[in-house]
Design goal:
Structural class: alpha/beta
Radius of gyration: 20 Å
Helix content: 40-55%
CATH architecture of one domain: 3-Layer(aba) Sandwich
Largest sheet: 7 strands, parallel
CATH class of one domain: Alpha Beta
CATH superfamily of one domain: NAD(P)-binding Rossmann-like Domain
CATH topology of one domain: Rossmann fold
Shape: globular
Strand order of the largest sheet: 3-2-1-4-5-6-9
Order of helices and strands: EHEEHEHEHEEHEHEEHHHHH
Length: 324
């Protein structure tokens, strides 16, 4: 796929996990792009050519969009595990819905051709039944404020793009990992690397993952493939794993022993509920699988990295990080 022919790009959230990897790829390909962030940290001021726009909800997008033909919208409020109960919805609506609306309207005025939006598989729901994967045409059933805001942002983006003659491509991403990963995946990585005893042997769930290198490759396809215009599709690695398998394979990539032992899931859930950690444990025990066949077929695309390669790269990053 020839990204160079797509013209100048704008990437929002360029300092985030996926944004950083995407901009590195664009720089390596010498593709003109604007790396938009809210603010530039001191450590990044000289090494990365970011454009600071302040609060995205109030930003003037006109200058950043000048000469841009396509946008990759990665910025947003990510899922927070322990969200405060008071007014938990509003920050997600502002960051994920209002910002998307204002950016799309500004992009239309600037003559942008296509907007690629990073959404989440949580729009489908929180869990899947054994053997029943979420598919592209399954109805949305978001359960928390984060997923609800992403579903609304998809709707807003498609409406504006249809009305203003632009093309929208919404990509629903599962748990994404790789160099620079944070959150729950990093916590699990740290625990495995430290050879902590984990009560997660024999977990028979299935989880879909996405290596960041595959995410970047899929975004390239979403920018370039005409057939994807107007689509909302899940993307994923080709292989799903159980939590127990993931721990074993992380340990192998790190060169350590996986120290797991069996505890009945009902006991794990009960203990987590007592400690206020039910949601975190649910994510380790429940299944959440998506079928990304439609994206692969429509884009004539396949993930360039296997799970083994992705975990090896993640482990190499972790070792380098801890060697410094």
């Amino acid at each position: 796929m020839d990204l160079a022919s797509q013209g100048k790009l704008l990437v929002t959230g360029a300092d985030g996990f996926i944004g950083h990897a995407l901009c590195a790829r664009l720089a390596a390909l010498r593709i003109a792009h604007v790396a938009a962030v809210r603010r530039v940290l001191v450590r990044d001021a000289k090494s990365r050519p970011f454009v600071a726009l302040g609060d995205f909800a109030a930003a003037d997008w006109a200058e950043a969009l000048s000469g841009v033909s396509a946008v990759v919208h990665l910025a947003g409020r990510a899922h927070v595990m322990r969200e405060p109960k008071t007014d938990a919805v509003t920050p997600y609506v502002v960051a994920n819905v209002h910002v998307t609306r204002r950016l799309a309207e500004a992009a239309a005025l600037a003559g942008v051709r296509r907007i690629v939006f990073a959404s989440t598989v949580k729009v489908y729901g929180e869990r899947t039944a054994p053997g029943r994967l979420f598919r592209a045409d399954d109805p949305a059933a978001p359960l928390d404020a984060y997923a609800q805001s992403k579903a609304e942002a998809e709707k807003v983006l498609h409406e504006i793009c249809r009305a203003r003659g632009m093309e929208a491509v919404c990509l629903r991403l599962p748990l994404t990992y790789g160099a620079g990963v944070k959150g729950n995946f990093l916590a699990l990585l740290e625990a495995v690397a430290a050879e902590r005893r984990l009560p997660l042997a024999g977990i028979a769930n299935r989880r879909t993952l996405l290596y960041v290198g595959n995410a970047v490759s899929a975004i390239e396809a979403a920018l370039a493939v005409p057939a994807l215009a107007g689509q909302t599709l899940p993307i994923a690695d080709t292989e799903s794993v159980s939590t127990s398998e993931l721990i074993d394979r992380l340990a192998c990539a790190l060169g350590v022993s996986a120290r797991t032992f069996r505890v009945p899931p009902v006991i794990l859930r009960a203990g987590a509920a007592m400690l206020g950690r039910a949601a975190a444990v649910d994510r380790l025990l429940d299944s959440l699988e998506v079928d990304a066949t439609r994206f692969r077929e429509m884009a004539t695309w396949s993930p360039p990295y296997s799970l083994e390669q992705g975990l090896a790269a993640t482990a190499a990053w972790w070792r380098l990080r801890h060697a410094l």
